[in-house]
């Protein structure tokens, strides 16, 4: 019997892009709420959240493709999802802290917003990864086809 975990992960670029976008929706909402709670300024929190949305789509996509390339199918294992969540959160929190610093003019506020994200987003990202692990590998289109056949 062939060991599936040693095969490369056949995840399409399309799937990575859809996955990045779905995560960004969750992540941006979280960033905007945390930013508002820290600054009390809705306008600033929207600026941080919207800039974060754009910058992180690219960063997340690159992170996702790196995991597919270097780790392959093992990226779907629960323990690996934890490591993947931590590496992404490190990149993501540094990005958020930078944007928050730029928009508030206060490095400490930027670090606080980035720090609070560590608490919320590691858990959110882990559950996002576990949800996507249930989606058929390769293309989101296959999931849609599979669901159509069931119903």
Describe the model.
With 151 residues, this protein is mainly alpha-helical. The protein has one domain (12-134). It has 5 helices and no strands. The chain is elongated.
Measured by DSSP, the beta-strand proportion falls in: under 5%
Range of helix content: over 70%
- Poorly predicted runs are 1-8
Mean pLDDT: 83
Radius of gyration: 17 Å
Count of β-strands: 0
Please give the structural blueprint:
Blueprint: H1 13-39, H2 42-70, H3 78-104, H4 107-133, H5 140-150
Characteristic key phrases:
single chain; 151 residues; mainly alpha
Task: Give a quick precis of the structure.
The chain is mainly alpha-helical. The chain has five helices and no strands.
């Amino acid at each position: 019997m062939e060991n599936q975990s040693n095969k490369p992960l056949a995840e399409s670029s399309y799937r990575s892009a859809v996955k990045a976008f779905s995560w960004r929706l969750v992540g941006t909402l979280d960033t905007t709420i945390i930013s508002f709670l820290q600054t009390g300024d809705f306008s600033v929190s929207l600026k941080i959240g919207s800039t974060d949305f754009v910058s992180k789509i690219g960063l997340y996509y690159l992170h996702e493709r790196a995991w597919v390339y270097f780790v392959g199918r093992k990226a779907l294992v629960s323990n690996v999802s934890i490591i993947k969540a931590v590496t992404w959160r490190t990149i993501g929190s540094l990005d958020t802290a930078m944007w928050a610093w730029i928009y508030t003019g206060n490095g400490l506020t930027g670090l606080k917003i980035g720090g609070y994200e560590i608490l919320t987003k590691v858990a959110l990202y882990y559950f996002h990864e576990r949800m996507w692990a249930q989606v058929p590998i390769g293309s989101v289109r296959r999931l849609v086809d599979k669901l159509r056949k069931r119903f």
